[in-house]
Write a structure and sequence with these properties.
about 70 residues, alpha+beta, Pemi-like Protein 1, Chain: D, two-stranded antiparallel ribbon, 3 helices, elongated
Length: about 70
């Protein structure tokens, strides 16, 4: 288990992430992290869950309409 420290940044509060944690998240200074509420608590992720949901929907549509898309591509 790792603890994170909250610190003052101007008039806001910031969270300090270790280099090791940033490497595991595959992100760095300036990147966006998404805060997702799950049944197990709060999750920080570099992946946009809304974008992932939209991509899943697009993949389902492409799979279902494969013949139509093939015809359009020709």
């Amino acid at each position: 288990m790792q603890t994170l420290k909250l610190t003052t940044v101007g008039n806001s509060v910031g969270l300090i992430l270790s280099k090791e944690l940033l490497a595991k998240l595959r992100c760095g200074k300036g990147d966006l992290l998404y805060v997702v509420e799950t049944p197990n608590g709060i999750e920080l992720t570099p992946y946009d869950p809304e974008f992932a949901r939209q991509m899943d929907m697009a993949e389902d549509l492409m799979r279902e309409e494969r013949d139509v898309l093939k015809t359009l591509a020709e």
